[in-house]
Amino acid sequence: MRKYLAILFKYFGAIKKAFALLWKDKFTKVYAGIIAFLLLFSFLLFLIFPDSAHFSETTCLPIGNQPPGFSVKMLRMAENKPQPVQDFFSALKFGRPSNDNYIPIISSHFDGTDIVVKEFSASGDSSYESRFNIADVVYPLNQSKKIIENNGALSFEKNDGSTAEESISVLQGIIDGQNIVIQKFILGTDHMGRDVMSQILSATRGTLWAAFIVTFISLVSGFILGILVGLLKGKMRLLGLWLIRSLSSTPAMLLIIAVMFIIGNGFWHVCFVSGLILSFQIAQVIISGIFLKREKKFMESASALGITRMQILKNYYLTDLFSPVFASVIAIFYAAILVESSLNFLGIGFRNNLPSWGGMIRENYGYIFLQGSEYLILIPGLAITVVSMLFFSLAKRSHVSLKKEFNWTLV
User: What's the CA dihedral at 391, 398, 35, 351 to 10 degrees?
Assistant: First the structure.
């Protein structure tokens, strides 16, 4: 037991030394802080951003293609269909299903038991009026039961089977205070009337967490593959080296696209295929580190003394591989963001309306030629550029800092 604990502490010591070295650089601290904020924000975003509906898919066609800063008055109507019970963790993962319908309006007034609204029209024609019962606006009702007016009050049955009675004046006050709201769309709306800001924030989770999973798969599979090939001898080693170098020299996007066309698209398909193909870069780094270590004289002495390859691996190889692998992992994360965005732009990425920056560009790329709608392309494109450059800069600074300290080279 003590033997394994000693090895474990040795590995943690190597990791601690690498992190301590990186933490001396003030720019690395800034990059790491921003990245940690993005990951935490993407985890909690459904609790804090404007559109908390399932994957921010709330649509409102009358306000489609409105510019940034657009605001409109909305009549919030209770949804009459039963709402599923949802726990906190499910809401955190998928967002909350909307319990209300929103109708954009120009003006409104009460007429007895009804509210009469002039609906908003992007064309400027706001002469169309709609009429809704005020009880139906405030409460989710059982549509098969009639609403009964009696002495200035309304009696009705809710969709959960319970009955209620409210005075007309109270219902009108609730509507004025709670159901007529002003909604502001900071980044405008897309052609479906969805909030672009909520779409961008929701896509942050899809892109970053897909890149995180891709990086983890690359690290695990690349580490195992690199160790296996690095410890082989003779023709098996040559065969393994030829295979890894051949696959590493082939453009990763071509391999990923070819495999995706065979197995189909989907979130986990994107993650596993991208992770396995990008893992060859990690494997090549590990193999290079093992070969450089083998050239040391003390390694030849260890082999001559009869020390097994597994003992040499645990005591001499692994601790020195943490630093180059760490820098490579950050570079893989940067590459995974670009791969995921590219696949979704080509239409072979996520399914089930899962938002992503690449998917937003694909969905709106036709609007780049429409004056005033270029933001639908520029905003997700800017998000991809900024976040990928952030990880690229962190990978570059980590590479330079760790190379000086540990004297290794990425191949």
Answer: 40
